Amino acid sequence: MFSIVSSTGVLSFTSVPDYESPADVEVSDPANAAANNEYIVTVSATSGTGNRALTANQTLTVTVTDVTEVPSLPDAPTVTSSTISSLTITWTESSPCYV
């Protein structure tokens, strides 16, 4: 669900989260309900090797907030049938556009 760049420490979702369809699950430590758009992540960092290795852990809460999604624009209309007295046009919704 997350990836981290070891050289910079940048934490990112591996795929764009959807506020309307949260994918977080319930956890007990720390307590957090499922499907509330709060993702609990524990990051570990280790420095050194062998018996000189030191490890530190940090638990983070990543919260996904809602954004206003711009309505998608339809593709160009398609004429599906026409006669001397009528014209049938069909529009197909294109992929949504996000800002």
Q: How much helicity do the residues have? A: under 10%
Order of helices and strands: EEEEEEEE
Biggest sheet descriptor: 2 strands, antiparallel
Global Rg: 24 Å
Calculate the terminal CA-CA distance, rounded to whole Å: 22 Å
Give the overall shape: elongated
Mean pLDDT, as a whole number? 84
Alpha-beta classification? mainly beta
Explain what the structure shows.
The chain is 0% helix and 39% strand. It has 99 residues and is an all-beta fold. It has a two-stranded antiparallel ribbon with strand order 1-2. A two-stranded antiparallel sheet has the order 3-4. It is elongated. The two termini are 22 Å apart.
